């Protein structure tokens, strides 16, 4: 039986997130004792990426909330790439990795994302092609799948938003920020001697 990556995406993502959080919280950056400028640089980059990812996912949700599988969204972030939610999620994952002040976690997250999400994207696009037919095929020809093409950007003057659904999407968009907050809390407890670490990485 063929494994449905899209169907189990949320469950797999939550399991992966829990495992990642365990390893993130149990890790200390070796740069903290060897080069503080590198730790500052990594954390700053992480914060920028997390901010961009959270704002980007909220922007995407503004267009998609309440319309999934009911309407082909081609404006706003969906005019520059077909999978902007996943694009911003990748940025957020790299940001969280950088917030650990290591180079190891960003590299691992990029590899894991690249290994898994292309299957999810293909599965979703197969479903959308079934729902919207020729319209989606024309959209695929015009708009790149993942990396944005800013020259395609289109934005409507007005857009109807479902506030109830959008509110739920906002909370999911902020999990990058919450994760960094947890990491900072763990680091604070570690500095107080209340929390140890299992290993250290560059």
TrEMBL record:
InterPro entries: Phopholipid_MeTrfase
Pfam families according to UniProt: PEMT
Main location: membrane
The UniProt record lists the keyword Transferase: yes
UniProt feature coiled coil, ranges: none
GO cellular component, one term: endomembrane system
Keyword Cell division applies: no
Places the protein is found: Endomembrane system
Keyword field: Membrane, Methyltransferase, Transferase, Transmembrane, Transmembrane helix
Membrane topology: Multi-pass membrane protein
Bilayer-spanning residue ranges: 37-59, 103-121
This protein's name: Methyltransferase domain-containing protein
GO terms classed as biological process: methylation
One Gene Ontology molecular-function label: methyltransferase activity
């Amino acid at each position: 039986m063929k494994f449905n990556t899209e169907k189990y995406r949320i469950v797999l993502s939550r399991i992966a997130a829990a495992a990642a959080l365990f390893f993130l919280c149990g890790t200390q950056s070796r740069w903290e004792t060897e080069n503080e400028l590198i730790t500052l640089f990594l954390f700053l980059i992480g914060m920028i990426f997390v901010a961009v990812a959270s704002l980007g996912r909220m922007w995407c949700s503004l267009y998609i909330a309440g319309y999934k599988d009911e309407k082909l969204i081609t404006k706003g972030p969906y005019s520059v790439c077909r999978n902007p939610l996943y694009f911003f999620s990748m940025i957020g994952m790299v940001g969280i990795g950088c917030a650990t002040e290591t180079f190891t976690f960003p590299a691992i997250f990029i590899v894991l994302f690249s290994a898994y999400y292309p299957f999810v994207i293909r599965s979703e696009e197969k479903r959308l092609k079934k729902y919207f037919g020729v319209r989606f095929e024309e959209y695929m020809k015009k708009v790149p799948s993942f990396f944005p093409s800013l020259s395609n950007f289109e934005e409507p003057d007005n857009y109807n938003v479902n506030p109830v659904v959008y509110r739920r999407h906002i909370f999911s968009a902020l999990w990058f920020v919450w994760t960094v907050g947890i990491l900072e809390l763990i680091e604070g407890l570690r500095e107080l001697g209340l929390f140890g670490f299992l290993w250290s990485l560059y």
